[in-house]
Amino acid sequence: MTLTVPPELHHDLLLVEYLLHERTRARATVISMVNPHLIANPTDRLRALLVLAVARLGGATGEYVAHAAAAVELIEAATRAHNDLIDEQARRLGRVKNGAWDHGVALMVGDYLFALASGEMALSPDPRIIGLYSHAVMQICEGQLTTVTNLIPHETALATYWQRAEALAGALPAAAAQAGILCSNLPDTFLAPAARLGKHLGLARQLAAEIRDLESQGSFIQSGQAPLALILAAGAAPPDEIQAVFAHPTPETVAAALPIIRTHGLPLARESLAAQQRAAHQALSELPVGSTTPWLATLIEQSGE
């Protein structure tokens, strides 16, 4: 989803883009070898925009806020570089294998981007931002080590899904929103609702992406992922088609399972998406009202598209 940038954030976002370009210019060719869109695609700067928009609620703008925003985008790029190394299906089945030569390049690029992010954090206006982002990275790593390995018991599968989703989809947006509070010198009492705003917004976007995929071809499942709707469709006694696609996601098993997932899983997943949006709106209502409040509210609504 391409994000619409509010006019009051245009200048600050351009400064973020400048910082990202300048910091990565020396190694741009190698970074592009791993993924040409790691840094170069400015259409989804959700985390940077959260920093900028929440900071604007307290009247903060400019270079110091931009450093915190650039740092979180570099962390996001680093985690995506490392994600390219992961075979979800093999990991879920407990099969570990050595990667090809280019895995080493992706690993080094990810580490390099983490190092660049550290430099931007050091230039941020509040040293606590370093702790926020470091904790988010720790959560992301823990999320990558967490995977749904069995659909039974159903409660365990659901708990594992949410633990993983909150780490991978919610931790960094939560830290970004909190960084916005620290950049603006707003009272620390706003840190908790800011974290909830970012977390629930990130989860809503993740659920929306899963739903769109299941309404289409189910490529997430075929890549080895276990979307919420699949787990919900499995229930306490998973149908044979769900068990088969979970164990061996092939075009044939995906095609056989999709009608069941769409009938029994998607409606419940849509309810979960709506619940995440409501929670994000509630969190936003607990933050100070500013010029970017309407845009943040619209962003929450659009997260379900």
From TrEMBL:
Q: Which domain of life is it from?
A: Bacteria
Q: Which GO terms describe its biological process?
A: isoprenoid biosynthetic process
Instruction: State whether keyword Transcription applies.
Output: no
Q: Name one Pfam family in it.
A: polyprenyl_synt
Query: Per the entry, which co-factors are needed?
Result: Mg(2+)
| Bilayer-spanning residue ranges | none
Keywords, ordered alphabetically: Magnesium, Metal-binding, Transferase
- GO molecular function terms here? metal ion binding; prenyltransferase activity
Q: Which family does it belong to?
A: Belongs to the FPP/GGPP synthase family.
* Protein name (database record): Polyprenyl synthetase
Give the organism, scientific name: Chloroflexus aggregans
